[in-house]
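Possible regression after last week's pipeline update?

I re-ran a chain I had predicted before the update to compare outputs. Posting the input and the new output here so someone can diff against the archived version. Not blocking, just want to make sure nothing changed silently.
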Amino acid sequence: MKIFRVVSHKRTLLGFKRSFSREPELKDFLNYLDNLKNYEKCGVPKDAGTDSSHGFDLGRMNRLMDRLGNPQTGFKAVHIAGTKGKGSTAAFLANILRTEGYAVGCYTSPHVRTIRERISLGKLGEPVSAKALNCLFHRIKPILDEAVALENGRLSHFEILTAMAFKLFDQGNVDVAVIELVLGGPFLPHIEHIFLDKASSMCSPVVSASGPGNRSAVKGVSKSNGKPFQSCDIVIEVERDFKLFIELFDVKLQMLGIHQLQNAATATCVALCLRDKGWRISDESIHAGLEHTYLLGRSQFLTSTEAETLGLPGATIMLDGAHTKESAKALVDTIQMTFPEARLALIVAMASDKDHMAFAREFLSGGQLEAVFLTEVNIAGAKSRTTSASMLRDCWIQASKELGINTLHDGMEEYQKLFENQSFCSAGESKHKTILAAENSLPVSLRVGNQILRARTRDQTGIIVITGSLHIVSTVLSSLHG
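New output (post-update):
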């Protein structure tokens, strides 16, 4: 950038370079996983799920579980599938069950700071320890080696990690496991009958969290210890094959947004279904479990100390791993609900296989944007999956033209003059134009984005929003915590 003179903050810059440092005690295990197919790094093959040589094959997974003694049969499980909200719903449910006193195994993905976040077990919900993961790996490595060889190297990073999670749950004697299925699928109204028919054939009841007897609402947004929370009412009343009923008032959700309220309601329905099956789950545990749920990188606001560590004292910084059209809209709606008058500076990095145009349209049409910095981070540790900052900027420029939104972006004579004359705050209608800038350096994007936001907003609320991928969130958090 030539616009501002940016002073380096040594600790911050070094921190960003450490973003993908490895946990030394897990070196052997992580190296082993790195030698397997990893669709998070290389992207999902177009013909995956077919009979191709690298298609997804449950038979392969079944054979692996057989070799490990079928640990998945040693515990009860709740499976959570869908397109969006799986991880949050799993976290809500796992916390409800832990609050009641159950030993819970929880398996989700992706992780933000350490791969251990994907597996938690016990009554506290802490990530599995490096020691436990390492001990299990070395104990079953001969079996894994044999399985990889017999499957001609087709076992993936995810399959091995999933098998190890099940093994840990089994040997840890968990009361129940909450398992997020990494299996998306858009739920369209006209295919609902497929689910209903299948459930009927299996004599399984169907409960809808958005059914006519269920009422959920956000009553307001407040702050506690400087961080926002939303006060919600959740009322579930189902009378069909069986009766489910609960009234929860003034639930203080740390997870923000209408979409998170829906996830909380879904988890509540699951808890009530378990209670109907004989599980001991009190209304108080459901209420408290929902309130205690918190996930890194989901509408997460940094503390003042963390902002200062990044070299941005006094800044309000929000992290959210939104990376689709739908999650972008949910984030925009959440910001508008929480800070309706706030002006935004976005810092965006995205993977190459995402719909960049759709993502940009949601923010351009819904957010009060002062500046957007398009930047780069390694996606899942692989540079090949990162979209270049310049390509992202081109997408945002095109999206803004389609929406009829005036922007200023690198190379424009008007843009240069405004900054050189330091008149961008009082340049008539120009001050209302969103600045679009491509900047490869994430620390520089943060610094300059903050300077622009402060200069343009003056007495208004300004928020730096870091989004586009959980990987950019991971990079920032890793820089804070080493």
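Follow-up from reviewer: compared with the archived run. Residues 1-15, 17-21 have pLDDT under 50 and may be disordered. Marking as no regression found.
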